[in-house]
Amino acid sequence: MPIASAHQPVQLLDTDTTPKAGPLLVDGTISFAVRASFTKSGQKKAFRAALKEGDQLAVQYLIVDKKPESALKNTQLPQLVITSPTGKKITIKINERSPFYEPYGGTNYFYLARYSAPAEAGIYQFLVTSRAKAGITIAVGEKEIRGEVLRGPAPLSTPTPTASPAAAKPTPEPSASSTPKAEATTQSGYTMANVRANNSESSCWSVIGGNVYNLTQWINSHPGGASRIRALCGTDGTSSFSAQHGSRGSPTSTLANYLLGPLAK
């Protein structure tokens, strides 16, 4: 069973229903593990990735080796459609079920599909549509370095082959009125003010170890009870998390599923 390489986790939110509303992977050649969970058929979640001409678009479709995902037929698993900057649509076809072990979280996965092609310059759109209750991971990129994730309006410009190094990195267009509270962030990361604003059971953010996590979906799933997670909403929960779990791998692995990004310094 092959061992997987590390991918930076990105959790899609319930509000990420269109590519424009979803997060932007600033450099689509850096390895990201974009996770989408669905409770029923017909739900949509989406994100974007920026690439330059000459880059390689590398995408893998994965599921965890456990039910319900592992018991679903291919036709019941979420559909992934990628739209290129010029409007070309690529429907990812599930054509394998290759197991591998991911050592960082101690998790067994299945590769269901892999796609690779020379990239166009600009923003690629990824739209996932559910066909049953399921959770999937979409791995994008291959460079094992820390990447940047932005939320909010699309960048003013997209990378081009003749662009200067400064222009090759998309810059978000500031717009306070068009960015929902639950998605507000800065280019350098999420602020403590963002965290404090999401301090309820309906939108629960917390800082743990210098990163910001959206724990909303974990409140009612936490084995220790919902009250433990509600107490972290809108706060720096590092001490509480460490006191409860220490460095145990399972809670840390679960927490990674809800990562939004780094806390701005």
Strand percentage lies at 25-35%
CATH topology of the largest domain, anyone? Answer: Jelly Rolls
> Termini, distance in Å?
40 Å
- Count the E strands: 17
CATH class of the largest domain: Mainly Beta
Can you tell me the number of structural domains? 2
Structural class: mainly beta
Q: Quick one: overall form?
A: globular
- Rounded mean pLDDT score: 81
Total count of helical runs of at least 4 residues? 4
Query: Rounded to an integer, what's the Rg over CA atoms?
Result: 18 Å
Poorly predicted sequence stretches spanning 5 or more consecutive residues: 156-188
Q: Helical residue percent?
A: 10-25%
Strand neighbour order, sheet with most strands: 1-3-11-5-9-8
Please identify, by name, the CATH architecture of the largest domain: Sandwich
Order of helices and strands: EEEEEEEEEEEEHEEEHEHHE
> What does the main sheet amount to?
6 strands, mixed
